[in-house]
Every structure is written in structure tokens, then in C-alpha cells.
Inverse folding.
């Protein structure tokens, strides 16, 4: 499985230059609108979306077909895609955090104090979890429909988790639950567990979909 | 001879195509050529052997073990398809690093040796290599994890004769020690005539025959005759025949006997291509 991860990292390494250019462009816009906070989310999502690019590279050279001639199982391929997606998302969050911190330090309007740093760290952690949830939705779609169709279905991977969370929220409100700051904080504390369950469920779906698919 | 790969009664059904009870064996130290028209089932057979697609029934054993039972068996199988399956921005060096992580048996110095022998620049991106060089890279990869069996699916198609000749030499070298074997699917039957020991002919999803190449080469013959002479050929002597514009080509199993029996007719040697054409485009008698 290490070989599959290494392959994706090498493949995407070639795109680093264009990635840096687009990040600088977006950073320029976001810093003057939403500030460093927006950049952390954008950076994380852009990095998460690179998982789609790795699938596209694989499709172009019929990699999966070849990978199955190696001592590699279909499950290994699925695991590697999740691992790469998590690596990308974490990198995106760290890059966003670092660039945000540099911006905050350089900007005269923002003060670098403990509170600010804590807020940035919380934003980076939240961006990481959102990226993971989004990426985990994307992977089974690509295994099922291929890269091209999945690009069109990408909004589904935003809408489904968002609709699910909103539905649960509405259900709880209807049931008389009051959403106080303390409750929000508690939910935030539980969100890593929620993301882990989400990743596990979509991973099982991806395995089932890919196992049935002839490549 | 000890059997390395045994394929027994494999079946697979799709809409409009059925792979029907395909069976053959590949002994150690031999090269088997897999031939057949496009869509005959060659690639499906290879994909089932490699467990890339699931068979409906039948067994594939490698060294006595069911191949699909353990993914580690694939350490012993090198595969080359008709195109390279690594992304074009990778370099042979990076490909080597990826494969080193994939195969426990990977031998970095063997790989470097093949890169040097084939004149492959380690730092150049794959997209800068010619088709022949890409194929040589695929072969270098397949040979660098010490496989016992090499499976080649149209690996020499699209290469010029000089390049093909170089590659065929590598294959012959590979089976020299009588421990390694090759299964080679190819439309270029002249390559198979040069190096194969056995020929397995798949036609419409079934194994038509699996024979020693020398038996085909030295025993089979083709009688070239007109309609009137054709009527004089005993039915039991005919395997298949094909009507062409000005003559008939009649495939016979015993060339020498045919020459003695039908002295007024021309009996040619049968190349694999000729045999294939008569079976596929002609009428089979027995």
C-alpha cells in the first residue's frame, strides 16, 4: 500500500507549481475580503480536491488495471486513496494555518496574541474535518462513476453532508433542543468522532463499490 | 516437465460473449503463445488468470496454489501490457522507487541493470520516451522482481522489427534456466514462430487447440487447389478450408502424407497466421 501512496504523491508533485500559483491568487483575494480565516478553509478544500486529480491520472494510464497485477488488493487501493486524501487535507490545513499566521504577523491590523492563535488553530482543525468529510464523500462517487461524472456530481458531496447535518439540526430543534454556545462547543468536541464514523462508513461503501467493479 | 501455471475450465459470461471452459497448462521453462482474433477472449483469459476480473467457474493454479487465494503469489508474476501504466510525468527512477515499495522481491540493482542495458535514462519523464522505450521500461519493471512467470499482453505490438528482436532476445534469456516461463498474447505471429514452444488458439471464447509449435510447423500443411481438385480430397484429411477468389486453401494435419497422396496438388508449409485465417474465415471440417 505504501507504493500506492508514494505513486500518488509523486504524481501530484508535478502539479505543485500550478497549485502554488492558484493558492497565491486565491490568497490575494481572500486576505482582502475574509482575512486569514477564509484562506485556511480554501487552502484545505483545494488540497482535498487534489484527490480527484490523482484519480484522473490513474484513469489516464489505466493504473488500477495494472495495480491489480501487483501484490495489491482492491481494498489496498481504496485504503491508499483515503490515506492520500487525509495527507492532502492535513497539508492543506497546515499550509493554510502557516500562511494565515504569516499574514497575521505581517499585517498591522491583526495582532498575534494567544487568543488569535487559538482561533486560527480551531479554524484549521475545523477546516481539516470539513475537508475530510467532503473528501470521504467524493471518493466513493469516483469509484462508482469515474472522474468525469464525479466532477459533475461534486456538489453532491457538499450537499449530502450539509443536508444531513441540517436535517439532524432541524430534527433536534423540533424536538425542543436549545442550541446554546455550550452545546455548540460540545458538538465541536464530538466532531472528530463524527468525522471518523463518516470516513469509516464511506470507506466501507467505497470498498463494496470498487470490489464489484470490473477494471 | 513440471507445470507452472494450470488453467482449468474457466468460464466467464458477458452480454454477447462467453469464455467457455478454457483450459491449458504452461510447463516450466517454456513460452506459450496465445493467439486468436480480436475479441476471441485472449485478454479476458489473461485478466482472469491475474484475478483482475472474477471468473464464473474454473480454477487457475500457479505452482499448485489457487492464484486468487493469495495476493502475494503475484510477486512471482511479471506483467507487461501493450502500453505503460505509470503516469507520464514519472521518471524510471521514481517508478523504481514505487515498485520497490510494492514488491518484497524487488531487486534495485537488477532494475538499474536493465535500465542501463536498454539505454533508458533514469531521470527522463516517461512522456519523453518513445513507444519502444516505454515498452522496454515495462519489461524492465516486470523482470526486476524475480518473477517465475512473465505474462505479456500484446507487448510487442507497435514496435519496429529491430526493437522487437531485441525484446525477444530478452524473453529467450528469461526462460533459459528452465525454471521461468512466459505466456505471450500477440497478433504478430512471426514473433511467436521465433520463440514460442506451444501455441494456444482461442476462438470465440473457446480453446480451439493447444499444441506444440513444432507440430504445427512441421506436421500441418496447406493444400492450394481449385474447386475440382478440392472434391478429390478425402474429408477425413481436411481440418478446415477457406475459399478464396481463385483457389481454396485446405488445412491438413499431416503435410507429408498429403504430399504423397495428392501428388498433383501444391502443399505448402502452414504458418500460424495461415492456420488462424483458415479456421476463423473458413469452414471447419473436424
Amino acid at each position: 500500500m505504501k507504493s500506492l501512496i508514494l505513486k500518488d504523491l509523486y504524481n501530484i508533485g508535478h502539479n505543485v507549481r500550478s497549485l502554488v500559483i492558484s493558492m497565491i491568487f486565491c490568497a490575494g483575494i481572500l486576505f482582502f475580503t475574509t482575512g486569514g480565516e477564509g484562506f485556511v478553509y480554501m487552502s484545505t478544500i483545494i488540497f482535498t480536491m487534489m484527490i480527484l486529480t490523482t484519480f484522473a491520472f490513474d484513469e489516464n494510464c489505466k493504473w488500477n488495471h495494472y495495480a491489480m497485477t501487483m501484490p495489491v488488493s482492491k481494498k489496498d487501493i481504496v485504503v491508499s486513496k483515503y490515506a492520500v486524501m487525509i495527507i492532502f487535507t492535513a497539508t492543506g490545513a497546515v499550509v493554510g494555518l502557516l500562511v494565515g499566521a504569516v499574514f497575521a504577523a505581517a499585517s498591522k491590523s491583526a495582532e498575534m496574541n494567544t487568543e488569535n492563535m487559538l482561533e486560527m488553530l480551531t479554524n484549521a482543525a475545523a477546516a481539516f474535518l470539513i475537508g475530510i468529510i467532503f473528501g470521504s464523500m467524493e471518493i466513493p462517487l469516483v469509484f462508482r462513476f469515474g472522474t468525469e461524472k464525479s466532477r459533475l456530481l461534486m456538489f453532491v458531496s457538499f450537499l449530502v453532508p450539509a443536508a444531513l447535518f441540517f436535517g439532524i439540526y432541524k430534527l433536534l430543534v423540533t424536538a425542543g433542543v436549545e442550541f446554546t454556545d455550550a452545546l455548540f462547543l460540545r458538538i465541536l468536541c464530538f466532531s472528530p468522532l463524527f468525522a471518523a464514523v463518516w470516513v469509516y462508513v464511506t470507506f466501507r461503501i467505497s470498498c463494496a463499490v470498487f470490489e464489484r467493479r470490473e477494471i | 516437465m513440471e507445470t507452472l501455471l494450470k488453467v482449468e475450465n474457466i468460464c466467464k459470461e458477458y452480454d454477447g460473449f462467453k469464455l467457455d471452459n478454457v483450459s491449458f497448462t504452461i510447463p516450466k521453462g517454456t513460452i506459450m503463445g496465445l493467439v486468436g482474433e480480436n475479441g476471441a477472449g485472449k485478454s479476458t483469459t489473461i485478466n482472469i488468470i491475474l484475478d483482475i476480473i472474477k471468473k464464473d467457474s474454473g480454477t487457475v493454479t500457479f505452482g499448485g496454489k489457487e492464484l486468487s487465494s493469495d495476493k502475494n503469489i503475484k510477486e512471482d508474476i511479471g506483467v507487461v501490457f501493450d502500453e505503460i501504466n505509470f503516469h507520464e510525468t514519472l521518471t524510471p527512477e521514481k517508478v523504481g522507487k514505487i515498485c520497490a515499495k510494492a514488491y518484497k522481491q524487488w531487486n534495485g540493482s537488477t532494475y538499474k541493470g536493465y535500465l542501463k542495458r536498454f539505454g533508458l535514462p533514469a531521470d527522463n519523464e516517461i512522456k519523453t520516451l518513445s513507444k519502444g522505450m516505454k515498452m522496454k521500461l515495462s519489461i524492465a519493471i516486470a523482470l526486476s522482481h524475480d518473477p517465475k512467470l512473465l505474462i505479456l499482453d500484446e507487448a510487442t505490438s507497435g514496435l519496429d522489427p529491430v526493437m522487437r528482436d531485441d525484446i525477444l532476445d530478452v524473453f529467450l534469456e528469461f526462460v533459459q534456466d528452465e525454471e521461468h516461463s512466459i505466456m505471450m498474447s500477440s497478433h504478430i505471429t512471426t514473433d511467436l514462430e521465433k520463440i514460442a514452444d506451444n501455441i494456444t488458439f482461442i476462438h470465440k471464447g473457446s480453446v480451439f487447440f493447444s499444441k506444440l509449435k513444432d507440430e504445427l510447423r512441421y506436421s500441418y500443411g496447406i493444400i492450394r487447389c481449385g474447386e475440382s481438385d478440392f472434391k478429390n480430397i478425402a474429408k477425413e484429411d481436411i481440418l478446415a478450408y477457406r475459399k478464396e477468389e481463385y483457389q481454396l486453401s485446405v488445412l491438413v494435419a499431416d503435410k507429408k502424407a498429403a504430399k504423397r497422396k495428392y501428388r498433383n496438388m501444391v502443399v505448402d508449409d502452414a504458418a500460424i497466421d495461415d492456420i488462424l485465417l483458415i479456421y476463423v474465415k473458413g469452414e471447419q471440417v473436424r
Observations:
- Chain B has ten helices and 15 strands.
- The first strand of chain B starts at residue 3 and ends at 14.
- Chain B has a mean pLDDT of 91.
